[in-house]
Amino acid sequence: MEGERRRLSGVLSSVSLLCVLLDLQLDGLLAASHAEIESHLEMGRKLLAAGQLAEALSHYHSAVEGDSKNYLTYYKRAAVYLAMGKFKAALPDLSRAIELKPDFLAARLQRGNILLKQGDTQEAKDDFEAVLQNSPDNEEARNQLARVQELESHMEEAQGAYSRADYTNTVAFLERVVELSPWDPEVRELRSECFLQIGDYSKAILDLKPTTKLRNDNRAAFLKLSKLYYTMGEHEESLNQVRECLKLDQDDKDCFSHYKQVKKLSKQLESAEELIKEQRYDEAIEKYQAAVKTEPNVAVYATKAKERICHCLTKSKRAVEAIQACSEAHNMDPKNIFVLRDRAEAYILNEDFEKAVEDFQEAKEFDGENEELKEGLERAQKLLKQSRKRDYYKILGVRRSANKQEIIKAYRKLAQQWHPDNFQTEDEKKEAEKKFIDIAAAKEVLTDPEMRQKVDAGEDPLDPENQQGGGHPQQWPFEFNPFTSGNFQFKFNFN
Questions:
Q1: For residues 456 and 6, what is the distance between their CA atoms, to the nearest angstrom?
Q2: Per-block average pLDDT, block size 10, for the chain (495 residues)?
Q3: pLDDT for res 45
Q4: What is the DSSP letter of 422?
Q5: What is 350-385 written as a DSSP string?
């Protein structure tokens, strides 16, 4: 019996010693942990002051993990989240801080402010009233409570106007609502819908874009944005938005279906523009025609295609077709200066200089500072003036787009026809001589690249007014005058 007592006493002594040792070790661990937490909090404070938010947040994470009962740690981490613009992440920390310390008024005020901006008016009101119960003189809480009431009043007015389909007044009421609760996606969605009803797509997009971040997995907003951009003719941005939808869920049927349509159209339009850069105008026209078949229901693409087809035909020097296509494009978009410019160039090709001048003048009314239009108008006016005097293309009966071989062929035919030896009377020979000289001059001017360039710019390189020194009449400009002898007995080379 005595032996058992001694053995039990020994066990108890050992247990007591172990408890003492464990207490000492635990005190050491707690001391180390407390010091480590304080270090994280201090580093977080310094980094936050320095604007290094991500690094500060990392230290506050460690502090929270080390002590989950410290309400100030949660509050400080919430402050970092707010500085980073992550108000949703800040809310749980503020709520936890209030849970740990219900009379923590700073956290209640901060949470109330966030709830107000989110449009959660009842919860925001509860927080501000709780603050006033503990601190009746708190001016910020009183002011914010007044804003909650103002928000509720404006929202009621907006909903009433919307139910009456009074979209203009709905937008007016929502203006202040958005100021008070900028993080409320429903308010922005409602105003976006009003702008759509009014027909202001750009403003509808501006309101819809923030909702992609204000709502989690907001595929519906990305798809709606994509369709709006598509309707406006901005297919590149439409493609960007629908891709954002597919990033959230690559199997989303609605987004994928729209993606295929936008992708196909974008590829055709981009390919057409590349072909224009390469001056492969006929192929570019085919691509634009294919694009219209891909999207026959959105008018902006048909208008754009017609504009670019007009441009391609003008560049291809197919004057008659270009004038027709450009006129159709002009009817679709009367203020498009590029269509007017291209049609003016087509009119020049068709030698209808008066209409070319009219188109350049009309285009200048829409963009008076455009240098290309100014230069085009000056050139068209010179060509009109020139056409009323001596037109070398008309003399030879060739188009302005004629190449050198076509010019020489026309010259040879006319030179043989109007050679003075073909006529009998003196009057006939004089008339033939005059025409023959004009024909020879036209051939020499139009086969000389420098002189032809002047002609195409609206100048007459043989006009005495354009010659240096001025006042001296232009003589036969070439190597010889075949009409120096009275009996016209000479050899003439038809080159």
A1: 126
A2: 51 42 42 73 84 86 85 90 90 94 94 95 96 95 96 96 97 96 96 96 96 93 97 96 96 97 97 97 97 95 97 96 97 96 96 95 94 95 83 88 92 91 87 89 92 86 64 41 40 43
A3: 84
A4: G
A5: TT-HHHHHHHHHHHHHH-TT-HHHHHHHHHHHHHHH
Distances in Å between the Cα of 168 and the Cα atoms of 150, 173, 210, 211, 320 are 20, 9, 21, 21, 48
| Per-residue model confidence (pLDDT) at position 479 | 40
Long-range contacts at 36-43 (CB < 8 A, ≥ 24 apart):
36/62, 36/66, 37/62, 37/63, 37/66, 37/67, 37/70, 37/73, 40/66, 41/73, 41/76
Residues 386 and 458: beta-carbon distance below 8 Å: yes
Taking the C-alpha atoms of residue 374 and residue 63, their distance in angstroms, rounded to an integer, is 70
Residues 6+ apart with CB under 8 A from 33: 66, 67
Q: Please report the pLDDT score of residue 483 as a whole number.
A: 44
pLDDT for residue 6: 54
Buried-state track 338-366, b at ≥16 Cβ within 10 A, e below 16: bbbbbbbbbbbbbebbebbbbbbebbbee
DSSP for 188-252, please give it: HHHHHHHHHHHT-HHHHHHHHTTHHHHSTT-HHHHHHHHHHHHHTT-HHHHHHHHHHHHHH-TT-
Helix (H, G, I), strand (E, B) or coil at 284: helix
Q: Judging by beta carbons within 10 Å of its beta carbon (0-12, 13-18, 19+), is residue 333 exposed, middle or buried?
A: middle
Dig out the tokens for 397 from the structure.
């009966």
From 220, 171, 172, select the one nearest 197 (Cα to Cα): 171
pLDDT at 12: 40
How many Cα neighbours within 13 Å face the side chain of 242? 25
Backbone angles phi, psi at 208, to 5 degrees: -75, -35
pLDDT at 11: 40
For residue 95, give every residue at least 6 positions away whose Cβ sits within 8 Å of its Cβ, in sequence order, or none. 111
d(CA 33, CA 39): 10
Q: By the 8 A CB rule, do 308 and 288 touch? A: yes
| Three-class DSSP category at 104 | coil
Count of H-run helices and E-run strands, the chain: 24, 0
CA distances from 94 to 52, 291, 486 (A): 21, 55, 113
**For the stretch 450-473, what's the b/e string if a residue is b when 16 or more beta carbons lie within 10 angstroms of its beta carbon?**
ebbebbeebbbbbeeeeeeeeeee
